[in-house]
User: Fold this.
Amino acid sequence: MGKSKEFSNNFWNVIDKGLAGWSILLMGLMATMVVISVIMRYVFNLTYVWSEELIIYLFVATTYFGSIMCVKEMEHIDIPFLRDMASKNVGIIMDIFVCLANIAVQIGLAYFSFTWIEKTGSSLTTGLYIPLYVVYSMFPICFFLMAIYTFRRIENKIVPAIKKASKGRTGWSAWNLLLFLIYAAAAGGIGYLYTTIAWIEKIKTSIKPVMMTIVSAIFTIMFAVCILLVTVFAIKRLICIFKKDTFTEAGGEQ
Assistant:
Protein backbone atom coordinates (compact mmCIF):
# COMPACT_ATOMS: atom_id res chain seq x y z
CA MET A 1 0.00 0.00 0.00
CA GLY A 2 2.84 2.36 0.87
CA LYS A 3 4.64 1.96 -2.46
CA SER A 4 1.42 2.23 -4.49
CA LYS A 5 0.43 5.37 -2.58
CA GLU A 6 3.88 6.87 -3.13
CA PHE A 7 3.69 6.06 -6.84
CA SER A 8 0.21 7.60 -7.04
CA ASN A 9 1.37 10.78 -5.31
CA ASN A 10 4.41 11.09 -7.59
CA PHE A 11 2.26 10.46 -10.67
CA TRP A 12 -0.28 13.12 -9.73
CA ASN A 13 2.49 15.57 -8.80
CA VAL A 14 3.88 15.24 -12.32
CA ILE A 15 0.42 15.74 -13.85
CA ASP A 16 -0.32 18.73 -11.60
CA LYS A 17 3.01 20.40 -12.34
CA GLY A 18 2.63 19.73 -16.06
CA LEU A 19 -0.86 21.23 -16.09
CA ALA A 20 0.27 24.25 -14.07
CA GLY A 21 3.31 24.76 -16.31
CA TRP A 22 1.19 24.49 -19.46
CA SER A 23 -1.33 27.01 -18.11
CA ILE A 24 1.46 29.42 -17.19
CA LEU A 25 2.97 29.01 -20.65
CA LEU A 26 -0.35 29.78 -22.33
CA MET A 27 -0.94 32.82 -20.12
CA GLY A 28 2.60 34.12 -20.67
CA LEU A 29 2.38 33.62 -24.43
CA MET A 30 -0.97 35.39 -24.57
CA ALA A 31 0.34 38.33 -22.54
CA THR A 32 3.41 38.56 -24.77
CA MET A 33 1.32 38.48 -27.93
CA VAL A 34 -1.01 41.19 -26.58
CA VAL A 35 1.93 43.49 -25.76
CA ILE A 36 3.53 42.92 -29.17
CA SER A 37 0.19 43.45 -30.91
CA VAL A 38 -0.40 46.76 -29.10
CA ILE A 39 3.10 47.99 -29.94
CA MET A 40 2.74 46.99 -33.60
CA ARG A 41 -0.67 48.66 -33.88
CA TYR A 42 -0.04 51.97 -32.10
CA VAL A 43 3.67 52.46 -32.79
CA PHE A 44 4.14 50.98 -36.26
CA ASN A 45 0.49 51.15 -37.39
CA LEU A 46 0.57 47.49 -38.36
CA THR A 47 -2.04 44.83 -37.65
CA TYR A 48 -1.84 41.17 -38.54
CA VAL A 49 -4.93 38.98 -38.71
CA TRP A 50 -3.04 35.86 -37.64
CA SER A 51 -1.75 37.50 -34.45
CA GLU A 52 -5.23 38.70 -33.45
CA GLU A 53 -6.63 35.24 -34.10
CA LEU A 54 -3.82 33.62 -32.11
CA ILE A 55 -4.55 35.89 -29.15
CA ILE A 56 -8.23 34.87 -29.24
CA TYR A 57 -7.39 31.16 -29.31
CA LEU A 58 -4.84 31.58 -26.52
CA PHE A 59 -7.46 33.38 -24.45
CA VAL A 60 -9.91 30.51 -24.99
CA ALA A 61 -7.20 27.97 -24.13
CA THR A 62 -6.29 29.76 -20.89
CA THR A 63 -9.98 29.80 -19.95
CA TYR A 64 -10.49 26.07 -20.47
CA PHE A 65 -7.20 24.89 -19.00
CA GLY A 66 -7.70 27.38 -16.17
CA SER A 67 -11.07 25.73 -15.53
CA ILE A 68 -9.23 22.45 -14.94
CA MET A 69 -7.04 24.20 -12.37
CA CYS A 70 -10.17 25.57 -10.72
CA VAL A 71 -11.61 22.05 -10.47
CA LYS A 72 -8.33 20.85 -8.97
CA GLU A 73 -8.23 23.66 -6.39
CA MET A 74 -12.04 23.66 -5.89
CA GLU A 75 -12.21 27.31 -6.90
CA HIS A 76 -15.42 27.11 -8.94
CA ILE A 77 -18.54 28.77 -7.56
CA ASP A 78 -19.93 26.80 -4.64
CA ILE A 79 -22.98 27.57 -2.48
CA PRO A 80 -22.58 25.38 0.63
CA PHE A 81 -25.57 26.81 2.53
CA LEU A 82 -27.71 23.65 2.55
CA ARG A 83 -24.70 21.35 2.91
CA ASP A 84 -23.49 23.22 5.99
CA MET A 85 -26.92 22.92 7.57
CA ALA A 86 -27.10 19.16 6.99
CA SER A 87 -25.54 16.40 9.04
CA LYS A 88 -22.14 14.99 8.09
CA ASN A 89 -23.53 11.98 6.26
CA VAL A 90 -26.11 14.02 4.36
CA GLY A 91 -23.44 16.59 3.52
CA ILE A 92 -21.22 13.84 2.13
CA ILE A 93 -24.09 12.52 -0.01
CA MET A 94 -24.73 16.04 -1.30
CA ASP A 95 -21.03 16.43 -2.16
CA ILE A 96 -21.04 13.13 -4.04
CA PHE A 97 -24.20 14.13 -5.92
CA VAL A 98 -22.68 17.48 -6.94
CA CYS A 99 -19.50 15.76 -8.15
CA LEU A 100 -21.50 13.22 -10.16
CA ALA A 101 -23.61 15.98 -11.70
CA ASN A 102 -20.43 17.85 -12.68
CA ILE A 103 -18.91 14.69 -14.16
CA ALA A 104 -22.07 14.00 -16.18
CA VAL A 105 -21.99 17.51 -17.64
CA GLN A 106 -18.24 17.33 -18.35
CA ILE A 107 -18.36 13.92 -20.03
CA GLY A 108 -21.50 14.95 -21.92
CA LEU A 109 -19.86 18.10 -23.27
CA ALA A 110 -16.79 16.12 -24.29
CA TYR A 111 -18.99 13.55 -26.02
CA PHE A 112 -21.09 16.07 -27.94
CA SER A 113 -18.01 18.08 -28.93
CA PHE A 114 -17.27 15.22 -31.32
CA THR A 115 -20.27 16.18 -33.47
CA TRP A 116 -19.06 19.76 -33.56
CA ILE A 117 -15.54 18.75 -34.60
CA GLU A 118 -16.90 16.29 -37.18
CA LYS A 119 -19.02 18.95 -38.88
CA THR A 120 -16.75 22.01 -38.77
CA GLY A 121 -13.28 20.72 -37.90
CA SER A 122 -12.05 20.41 -41.50
CA SER A 123 -12.39 24.16 -42.18
CA LEU A 124 -9.34 26.41 -41.95
CA THR A 125 -9.01 29.38 -39.63
CA THR A 126 -9.03 32.77 -41.35
CA GLY A 127 -5.70 34.02 -40.03
CA LEU A 128 -3.48 31.10 -39.07
CA TYR A 129 -4.80 28.80 -41.82
CA ILE A 130 -4.81 25.76 -39.57
CA PRO A 131 -7.64 23.19 -39.43
CA LEU A 132 -10.25 24.07 -36.84
CA TYR A 133 -10.10 20.59 -35.34
CA VAL A 134 -6.63 21.48 -34.03
CA VAL A 135 -8.25 24.24 -31.98
CA TYR A 136 -11.48 22.40 -31.18
CA SER A 137 -9.60 19.36 -29.84
CA MET A 138 -8.85 21.30 -26.69
CA PHE A 139 -12.53 21.09 -25.71
CA PRO A 140 -12.85 17.30 -25.26
CA ILE A 141 -9.38 17.19 -23.71
CA CYS A 142 -10.25 19.86 -21.14
CA PHE A 143 -13.68 18.43 -20.39
CA PHE A 144 -12.23 14.97 -19.84
CA LEU A 145 -9.50 16.38 -17.58
CA MET A 146 -12.15 18.24 -15.58
CA ALA A 147 -14.02 14.97 -15.13
CA ILE A 148 -10.83 13.18 -14.10
CA TYR A 149 -10.03 15.84 -11.50
CA THR A 150 -13.60 15.68 -10.23
CA PHE A 151 -13.24 11.93 -9.71
CA ARG A 152 -9.97 12.66 -7.95
CA ARG A 153 -11.77 15.17 -5.74
CA ILE A 154 -14.06 12.37 -4.55
CA GLU A 155 -11.02 10.28 -3.60
CA ASN A 156 -8.96 13.10 -2.06
CA LYS A 157 -11.65 15.20 -0.36
CA ILE A 158 -14.83 13.21 0.11
CA VAL A 159 -13.30 9.86 1.09
CA PRO A 160 -11.30 11.47 3.96
CA ALA A 161 -14.56 13.07 5.15
CA ILE A 162 -16.19 9.63 5.05
CA LYS A 163 -13.31 8.24 7.11
CA LYS A 164 -13.95 10.82 9.81
CA ALA A 165 -17.72 10.34 9.75
CA SER A 166 -17.56 6.53 9.89
CA LYS A 167 -17.97 5.20 13.43
CA GLY A 168 -17.09 1.61 12.68
CA ARG A 169 -16.11 -0.90 10.03
CA THR A 170 -19.73 -1.51 9.02
CA GLY A 171 -20.31 2.11 8.09
CA TRP A 172 -16.90 2.37 6.44
CA SER A 173 -17.57 -0.74 4.34
CA ALA A 174 -21.03 0.53 3.36
CA TRP A 175 -19.61 3.80 2.11
CA ASN A 176 -16.90 1.98 0.17
CA LEU A 177 -19.50 -0.30 -1.38
CA LEU A 178 -21.52 2.74 -2.46
CA LEU A 179 -18.48 4.39 -4.01
CA PHE A 180 -17.48 1.13 -5.70
CA LEU A 181 -20.91 0.88 -7.31
CA ILE A 182 -20.71 4.53 -8.40
CA TYR A 183 -17.27 4.04 -9.94
CA ALA A 184 -18.30 0.80 -11.64
CA ALA A 185 -21.41 2.45 -13.09
CA ALA A 186 -19.37 5.46 -14.21
CA ALA A 187 -16.75 3.28 -15.94
CA GLY A 188 -19.48 1.30 -17.67
CA GLY A 189 -21.34 4.44 -18.72
CA ILE A 190 -18.22 6.09 -20.12
CA GLY A 191 -17.34 2.91 -21.99
CA TYR A 192 -20.87 2.70 -23.41
CA LEU A 193 -20.68 6.31 -24.64
CA TYR A 194 -17.46 5.50 -26.45
CA THR A 195 -18.99 2.50 -28.22
CA THR A 196 -21.96 4.57 -29.44
CA ILE A 197 -19.64 6.47 -31.78
CA ALA A 198 -19.03 4.31 -34.84
CA TRP A 199 -15.41 5.31 -35.26
CA ILE A 200 -14.47 3.05 -38.17
CA GLU A 201 -17.57 4.02 -40.16
CA LYS A 202 -16.99 7.70 -39.37
CA ILE A 203 -13.43 7.51 -40.68
CA LYS A 204 -14.40 5.58 -43.82
CA THR A 205 -17.25 7.92 -44.77
CA SER A 206 -15.51 11.15 -43.82
CA ILE A 207 -14.39 13.70 -46.42
CA LYS A 208 -11.29 14.23 -44.27
CA PRO A 209 -10.26 10.74 -43.05
CA VAL A 210 -6.96 12.04 -41.67
CA MET A 211 -8.80 14.52 -39.48
CA MET A 212 -11.25 11.87 -38.26
CA THR A 213 -8.38 9.49 -37.51
CA ILE A 214 -6.63 12.10 -35.36
CA VAL A 215 -9.86 13.07 -33.62
CA SER A 216 -10.75 9.43 -32.94
CA ALA A 217 -7.26 8.86 -31.51
CA ILE A 218 -7.69 11.83 -29.15
CA PHE A 219 -11.10 10.64 -28.01
CA THR A 220 -9.88 7.06 -27.58
CA ILE A 221 -6.98 8.17 -25.40
CA MET A 222 -9.17 10.40 -23.23
CA PHE A 223 -11.90 7.77 -22.85
CA ALA A 224 -9.29 5.11 -22.01
CA VAL A 225 -7.55 7.30 -19.41
CA CYS A 226 -10.85 8.20 -17.78
CA ILE A 227 -12.06 4.58 -17.65
CA LEU A 228 -8.69 3.38 -16.35
CA LEU A 229 -8.64 5.97 -13.57
CA VAL A 230 -12.20 5.21 -12.47
CA THR A 231 -11.42 1.49 -12.53
CA VAL A 232 -8.40 2.04 -10.30
CA PHE A 233 -10.53 4.03 -7.85
CA ALA A 234 -13.17 1.26 -7.91
CA ILE A 235 -10.52 -1.36 -7.11
CA LYS A 236 -9.28 0.77 -4.20
CA ARG A 237 -12.79 0.93 -2.76
CA LEU A 238 -13.20 -2.82 -3.25
CA ILE A 239 -9.96 -3.48 -1.38
CA CYS A 240 -11.17 -1.28 1.46
CA ILE A 241 -14.32 -3.41 1.76
CA PHE A 242 -12.52 -6.73 2.19
CA LYS A 243 -9.24 -5.72 3.81
CA LYS A 244 -9.79 -5.59 7.56
CA ASP A 245 -7.03 -3.16 8.49
CA THR A 246 -7.99 -0.44 5.95
CA PHE A 247 -10.31 1.25 8.43
CA THR A 248 -7.45 1.70 10.91
CA GLU A 249 -5.13 2.83 8.11
CA ALA A 250 -7.77 5.31 7.03
CA GLY A 251 -7.72 6.95 10.43
CA GLY A 252 -10.84 5.30 11.86
CA GLU A 253 -11.14 3.97 15.36
CA GLN A 254 -11.74 0.32 16.10
Observations:
- The two ends are 20 Å apart (CA to CA).
